[in-house]
Task: inverse folding
């Protein structure tokens, strides 16, 4: 085709249908733009009508309730100010753990028989740690005969990474959202390698957990007593300027926390303990993860329980099911089977070795950091896959399904815009844009540990079910 | 104009001359692209010919020497591996300081009478600190009558931020480039506010300097003895993934350093000293700056002194003159008067209060970090001005005037490309692209302190003079 031809009148088309429709036009050298358009609610007419019925509308009795409820939920999320106020044994902070043989786990409720390998391994480890059985075989027998009860961390104000198993003697961080008084708990991060949260329970794992209970937990409690509450919002906000996203990358926050508390560690505990604590913090780039999770939980709990609100207040996985909660639907979980994340595997491992997605750590994305703040963490793509441009694109995409931007957590590469905050189940359903979650990948067998990291997308079915349930709370008729 | 007209044959022009040439064409709604073209060497025919004469050329006796020399210089820069190996009083590490009343200062050589306010203030403070005079008046009188000699830090393997004054009792970090054995020195960073490097010398300043000499320096020396050399390349490389650029933003590197050494601090010194040292490190986000500077100096000194090399091995300012050195021109300085940086001022201050650009800290840009690595530090624009996009554009621009990319220092936002390394004076002269320098802005009066931060551009005249001198070393005839 000659240059004058190119400048002459020609066909230019926009294709809204199947990609193939454009091929004949392109075959004639004409220009075609393919619009990435999908019908609302994936073409589900009833769901589309429902989402429309719940749309913000000041003149409509339903639409005005939802709008006001979501505005309130967003305000509580934006106003949250988490701080570390104590470190204490879980049994002392969570009353249910003190009474009977109860263990907490990540994700929505699940019984022993359905638990995945890593969670079963962590359960056995916790039973051994608590001295409820002397051997792994005895522990398994005890659980098999119903000698241990299980409940989700989320039912007790707690969150746990991966298996998320919490037993009475484990120290937990006590994080208080100073703006609302809501408190959340998480265990102390064990580091990488053979650790309980990936289902390992050999003597080295139990020994580390005993040291955490006997030394690290009490030392950090002394630090908080001596130095006062530690501002976690400030650390996370600064870490987002330093390449962390608060879920899979925590090296900046861990370093800032260590630098913040180091002088107080020296003052508050004896020299040998101080050296041991600071050595542990030096060796664990992910130490801040559990604090980040508890901080997000303390914020989201303040936004939970607002009638009519379609804001998501929990997203979580137990390795079998993915579950969410909405602010306006109380304690109900909306669950669906969970898949294996798409990611990068450590040498020698692949998707066939991977456990389906696991852990409460997606509480960070629920709050608007983690995968939602990937634009802050271009270096993370070397861990979870993709390119720095993908990282920025994910954050932009999450703005489409959230109701607010939290400028308290600014994203430098996006002109210091705020993190996408307040996932609106309506927008997820209407747009079909699934929340993105940065996640570690566990081996499906207990105790092998982490074998990769990647990006998961929350399954849309949970949000559709949640939205239907929310509509019922507003006395709307909902198709089955 | 109707749509069919727009698609019909039309004038499309590229304008290479003055911008105004395009106006009449635009006035007729035609498309004009203005090419930002400048004649090589700013139209200076002799300089253009000289740069061409020095161009890489394997078949030319001159061009082959320059090409090989620059390849060797680049290889030494890329291979550099700086580590902190000791902390000792300057008088013990720099022999000249032990003999007589000599003070080192930043930038190229300058006599007392021409020094700017902040440098004169720092000199008075150093005289008081060393006990060479009892009052500021006595100190000034001593210097006025020639009782103190001055030499640049650079003449003694040292670098100093801002005034850069080094006196015998001040502890210096001893940074060794493990690849080449070159060593460089820098004092310990005092923090912000009233500090000697901005020309303050009241009792609070001297007291802090005495504490640094009596406590901080010896404690860090003990830490290095107890824990071994500290890998500064590793810390800087990681910090570039965490929003630092290694000059004006050092919070990540300072936090990583603190986290790295904290356990050893506890082991190596008594509890009170450990707490004091860790408290100081907690309060000074810029502590790593001086280590970063010494690390860059140790790398650049390994690339210095290669006959025929047009690579820049130092850029520095004394608040009056800007000076550079080239690898192939030995100890010669090429200087020109220095201006005030373009930047953001702290409340209450403006350009009229500012001292012209000052300090050896541009050694970081000379090595390829600092302003050259701004793409790593989008958050820095809140400190030095501009937008995150500008930060990325500056790094891209610096690639045009450098001979290599150092993938040991990867830039996440640019797809993990390496920092622009090895400033080639030929390219600076040919392109007219001046090296960019992130810098603090000092008040012009001694002791007021930092009043802003901004971006400076190295003056082109230094590079032109350097290139002419380099040509003479190759027996080329050079126009005056």
Result:
């Amino acid at each position: 085709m000659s240059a004058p031809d190119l400048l002459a009148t020609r066909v230019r088309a926009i294709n809204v249908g199947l990609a193939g429709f454009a091929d004949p036009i392109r075959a004639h050298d004409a220009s075609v733009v393919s619009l990435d358009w999908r019908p609302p609610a994936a073409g589900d007419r009833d769901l589309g009508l429902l989402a429309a019925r719940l749309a913000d509308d000041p003149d409509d009795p339903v639409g005005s309730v939802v709008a006001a409820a979501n505005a309130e939920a967003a305000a509580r999320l934006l106003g949250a100010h988490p701080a570390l106020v104590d470190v204490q044994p879980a049994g002392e902070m969570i009353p249910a753990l003190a009474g009977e043989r109860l263990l907490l786990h990540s994700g929505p409720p699940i019984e022993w028989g359905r638990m995945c390998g890593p969670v079963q391994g962590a359960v056995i480890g916790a039973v051994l740690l608590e001295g409820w059985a002397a051997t792994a075989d005895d522990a398994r027998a005890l659980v098999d005969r119903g000698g241990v009860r299980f409940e989700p961390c989320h039912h007790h104000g707690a969150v746990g990474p991966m298996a998320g198993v919490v037993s009475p003697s484990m120290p937990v961080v006590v994080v208080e959202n100073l703006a609302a008084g809501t408190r959340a708990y998480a265990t102390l991060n064990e580091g990488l390698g053979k650790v309980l949260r990936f289902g390992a329970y050999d003597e080295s794992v139990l020994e580390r957990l005993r040291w955490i209970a006997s030394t690290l937990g009490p030392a950090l409690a002394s630090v908080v007593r001596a130095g006062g509450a530690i501002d976690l919002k400030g650390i996370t906000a600064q870490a987002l300027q330093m390449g962390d996203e608060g879920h899979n990358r925590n090296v900046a926050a861990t370093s800032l926390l260590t630098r913040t508390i180091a002088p107080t560690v020296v003052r508050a505990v004896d020299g040998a303990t101080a050296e041991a604590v600071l050595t542990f913090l030096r060796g664990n780039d992910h130490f801040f993860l559990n604090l980040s999770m508890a901080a997000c939980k303390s914020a989201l709990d303040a936004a939970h329980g607002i009638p009519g609100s379609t804001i998501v207040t929990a997203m979580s996985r137990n390795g079998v099911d993915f579950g969410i909660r909405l602010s306006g639907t109380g304690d109900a979980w909306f669950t669906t089977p969970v898949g294996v994340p798409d990611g990068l595997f450590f040498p020698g491992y692949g998707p066939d070795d991977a456990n389906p997605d696991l852990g409460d750590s997606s509480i960070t994305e629920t709050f608007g950091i983690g995968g939602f703040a990937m634009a802050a963490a271009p270096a993370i793509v070397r861990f979870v896959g993709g390119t720095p441009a993908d990282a920025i694109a994910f954050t932009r995409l999450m703005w489409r399904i959230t109701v607010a931007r939290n400028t308290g957590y600014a994203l430098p590469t996006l002109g210091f815009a705020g993190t996408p905050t307040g996932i609106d189940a309506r927008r997820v359903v209407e747009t079909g844009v699934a929340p993105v979650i940065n996640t570690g990948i566990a081996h499906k067998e207990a105790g092998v540990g982490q074998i990769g990291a990647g990006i998961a997308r929350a399954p849309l079915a949970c949000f559709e079910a949640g939205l239907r349930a929310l509509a019922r709370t507003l006395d709307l008729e909902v198709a089955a």
